[in-house]
What we know:
alpha+beta
Amino acid sequence: MCGICGELRLDGAPVDLAAIQAMMGELVRRGPDHGGSYSDGALGFGHRRLSIIDLSVRSNQPMVDAELGLALVFNGTIYNYRALRRELEERGYRFFSNGDSEVILKAWHAWGTDCCAHLHGMFAFAVWDANQQALFLARDRFGIKPLYWSDQGSTLRFASSTQALMACGGVDTTIDPVALHHLFTLHAVVPAPRTVLRGIRKLAPGHWLRIDARGARSEAAFWRLSATRPAQTRSEPEWLEAIHEALRHAVRIRSEVADVPVGVLLSGGLDSSLLVALLAEAGVADLRTFSVGFEDTPEEAGSEFQYSDLVVARYGTRHRRLRVPNARVLERLPEAIDAMTEPMFGQDAVAFYLLAEQVSKEVKVVQSGQGADEVFGGYFWYPRIAAEREGSPLERFRRHYFDRDHDEYLRMVNDAYACEDHTSALIGARLAEPDADELMDAVLRLDVTTLIVDDPVKRVDNMTMAWGLEARVPFLDHDLVELAASCPPELKLRDGGKYPLKAMARGLLPDAVIDRPKGYFPMPALKYVRGPFLEMMRDVLGSRACRERGLYRKPYLDELLAAPDMHHTRIQGNKLWHLALLELWLQRNVDSAC
């Protein structure tokens, strides 16, 4: 797990080495163990390393294979790298390191653009082919690893964060109005290739992009998710057994493929608790688990310790609790916002940030339960969508998910940002894509391939990597996801959702953990906004910078400020927090870089 960056000059000029160094400076926290750079005429690479596999200098990057004429920067983990290495050795390739990075180099040489389909894991990487004078960029199937780029005509740059790209200067940081519409209707999700800034784009999950030194480009998907029933029908017990085995394998390989200890972020919910149980089942000794909790409000508890404690007691893990008072949350909130590569509305971002700070002092790698709700239908809005019988697929989805309908969005933004209903057009098209048998097949596929990328997958990557901590997400193992996508939705949605996981957990976890109401990683102070948190938001939204930016209409702001803890989205986000978060992110990450 690392931070990567690079530049390709398209005008024949040599690479700007100062730009590489500026980008690397913004990526130190992602890779505190080593930094290196490489240049070849018009091409430059930078890399910050977090050493997880093959801790020796042989796996430092940028990695250069002079014999093949290739150079690589890579962020992520390839779980099947040992099997791929054996296959490549049989083809005659010779290796000089023992890690997964060099396997990508050889795989590119052996299979070209088809190499990505051979990789099982999470990744964002760039390969420079000196023979072809071409740059190849690729991103994993679920966008677990970030990959941003900026085209400035004569120069194309890429990096693991928007902050790294802005550090070089010359980026158009004006607001993209289409992305802004997505941001406020889809709970801070801005589907690739857009970001909220006009001058920064991101590679779509499951895609590659090739650019040669003359500027010629080609892009393609190397993976698409089908959500159709298999030709050979399965009984319910067969489905449950197949899912159990696939998850068991996903958890095991994410524990075994590391040369450092692997812990678990234990929220107390079913998903992370099941990871602990399956690791214990696999014989992993000395399990390390970590939980975070916050202050209660009258409406909501701020921790789930009562459930995580049951799992700790069942499996005897070496456990750390972190309880954070609200004053500490408010004090550290700006830091968490600085770590966001894009604005994130999820109220638990600061929770992950503060937890990762403590966890990183003890381990370098953790497994986390993100993805289970999207893959197995765990959120409360899924049964509501499934129960709908009136309207188009878009209408049935929109009325239970969109943060704001289009008319409210137009009441929120000033005239300069008024636009068509871009989000409805995009989501309607995604839901209508082929290879989905039922509406819920299409909805769950949309969630796991598009919505989850920006919330919560990006949040977990950003907040953990801010402390040099690698987070692995076994519920997003692509073999498991493909299996689950072919499973009948009614089986996944049974018993309030995630039925296959609940059935699997019987006998492995206490019934109280399995049968508890669905939790949402509580951070009550950012949902029921009052006291110092309200004053902070008032200050941000009343600031000179906010007024001069001119995003929001004053009547809409006044409406939210009049009852700040009463205006919630359909999926229980606080609307005032959304507005304040975007403005604060812009002030700290964009205004300060200009």
